[in-house]
Write a structure and sequence with these properties.
Helix content: 55-70%
Shape: extended
Oligomer: single chain
Strand content: under 5%
Distance between the termini: 57 Å
Structural class: mainly alpha
Length: 106
């Protein structure tokens, strides 16, 4: 084992298809996601100047649903027996945090 391959092996947690560091494309994707994620707090702050937190929550949910509607493969059918659990997860994982962020920011 050479020194370079030992160094790469130490820096990775699993075997992958490439051992190189992030390229410009990967950095661009990461920067885009960070900008989208971080800007949500800026938009909430702007929206809170004239809207109530509940309206902000509904706008965020509607924008998310609109974004997902663009990609039909992002949706799969859910068995009727699983609907109560999916609704509970939606409330706990999405509804509560999306409600608390604008309330806390206000």
């Amino acid at each position: 084992m050479t020194e370079t391959s030992a160094r790469v092996r130490v820096l990775s947690t699993s075997e992958g298809s490439t051992a190189e560091a992030f390229g410009p494309g990967e950095w661009g994707l990461l920067s885009g996601i960070a900008a989208i994620w971080g800007s949500s707090f800026l938009w909430m702050d702007i929206g809170l100047e004239s809207l109530r937190p509940g309206v902000i929550v509904m706008v965020r949910v509607l924008l998310g649903a609109a974004a997902l509607s663009i990609f039909p493969r992002a949706r799969t059918s859910v068995d009727r027996a699983d609907l109560p659990r999916v609704a509970l997860l939606g409330l706990v994982w999405v509804g509560i945090p999306l409600s608390l962020f604008p309330i806390a920011q206000q």
